[in-house]
Amino acid sequence: MTDLLAKYQDVQQEAPYNEEEEKNNVRTNNRIKWEAKGDVYMKKNMTLKMVEFDKPTADKLHLFISDGEAYASIFMLLLSKLSNIDDTKYLLTLLDDLFEAAALQTTKTINLRAVLSPFYGLEKTKPDPSVPAPPFGPILKVINLNRKPIDLYVLSLGSRILSTLILHYPSGDAPKEIVEDAFHWFIELLDKDIDSDNSEAKLKQRRISLGLVGLRPLLSRNEYRGYFVGDTINGLPTLMRLSHFEERIEEVPTGVVQRKKKGGGGEEREIVPKKVPDFGQIYEAVFCIWCLSFNPDVTHKLSDPKLIFNLCHIAKRCNKVKVIRISLAVLRNLLGVGKNNEKMITYGLLSSLMMLRQKRWGDEELENDIKAIEEALERNVDDLTSWDMYKNEIEGGQLEWSPSHKSLKFWQENYLKFEEDDFYLLRSLKGILEQSDDPKVKAIACWDVGEFVRVHPGGKRICQMLDLKTPIMKHLAAQELDPSNEDLQKLSKEALTALQKLMITNWEYLQAN
To answer: Which of 135, 324, 365, 384 is most solvent-facing, going by the fewest CB within 10 Å?
Structure first.
C-alpha cells in the first residue's frame, strides 16, 4: 500500500477548490478563544494545554508528542461538543496540520504513527458517555452533522482525517463496523440530491469530486474493497452511475414557448444543449472501480454488462487520455472473469483497440494494456456466436442496429431461447423500454419485441403475460416531443409496427397486401 504521506498529498492536490487558501482563512479568522470555551467544555488544565498548543510560535508536533493522550482526549472531547461550524473547522485544521506535519517526519520518536497512537489508545480508557467512542466516533459525528448546508472544507478535512485513522489502525484492519460506517457516509454523500439551480449544481459537482477522492485511500486496502461491494454497503451501483459516459451533445427540446418569429407568428421550441460530460468525475469514479478490480473476490461483481459496456464505450468515444487509460486498466484486470471477454467483443472493443493502437501515446503502460487486451480477445472472437453477441448487447442495455436484429434466419434459429431463465431477455427488453433515455435504443427494443411475436407461435400470449404492450404504447407519440428529431420519429414508427404485430394474426399477409 502506498504510504500515507503520498495519499495525503494526492488528496490535497486534487481538491476541487483552493484548500490551502481556505486553510489560511480559517487559521486567521476562526481562531478559538480557549479561555471562553474552557468555562463550558473543558477543565482548567485542558484549557491551559490548548492555549499553549495554539500559540503561533508553538512547536505543535513536539508538544503533542510530549503528552499525546491528553491532547488526543481534548480533541475528541471538543469535536464531540462544539457545534459552531467555525470552531469545528478550526479544530479540523489543527488536526489536519498535525497529521500532515507528522507524515513529513521519519524519526523513530516523531512520525505519523507516534501521533496517531494516542488516539487509538483512547479506545482502552474509561468511556465518557458524552463523547462518541473515540477515535472514530467524534469524526463520524462531525461529518454526519455536516449536511445543510454542506461545507466542502469540513467534508474534505473530515474525510481525510477519518481515512487516516482507519488506514493506520494498529492491528492492521480497522473494525468492520467502523469501515462500513465510513463507506455509508461516502455513499450517502455521493447519492445525495441537491436542487439544480446553478449555485447548488456547482456545489454538487465539488461535493461528488471530494467524495470520490476521499474514497481512494480506503479502497487501497484489499479487505475494505470486499466491504464496499458487499450487501451491507453495495457501493458499486453508485460508482457505475457516476462513471457513466455519454458523449452525444445535441440540442433537445425542454418545452414549447410562444414567441413571434420574424415575418409572422407561431410556436418556437426552447432548445437547451445537453451538458458536456464531467470528465473529472468519470475519471475519479473509474479510478475507484480500478482499485476494486485488484481483489479477486470482487471482480465477479464487476462483470455487470452495463459497466463493461460503459468502459468499452469510453475506449471508443472518449478523447481524454487519462479517462481512456484508467478504463483500459480496469478492462485488463477483468479479462477472463465470467463472460467479460465475450461482452468486450460484443461491445466493439476490438475495433476500438485497433484504432487506439495506431496512435502514439508515449505511455508504455497504456500501450501494454492495449496489446494485452487485444491479444486476449482475439483468442475468443471465433468462439462467439451471433446469439452470444445479441444476448450481451441486450444485457448491456445499449442496442445497435447490428445484423442480428434484422436477420430473419437469426430469429428463426433462436426464438425459443427467449424462453430461457423465465423469459429473462424479454424482461430485459421491457426494462429498456421503460428506463432507457435513448430513443434509438428503445426503437430497436420495439423492433425486437415485434420480431419475437412474428416468429414465435406463442409470442403474442407471452408478451401479453409480460405486459410488453404497455411500455410500447407509451412511445407511440414520441415524435411529438420534437418532430425534427429523426430518432424520435423512428421510435414512434417502430412502436406502432410492434403494436401491429402484437394485434394482428397474419403479419406476413398484411405486409404483402
So the answer is: 365
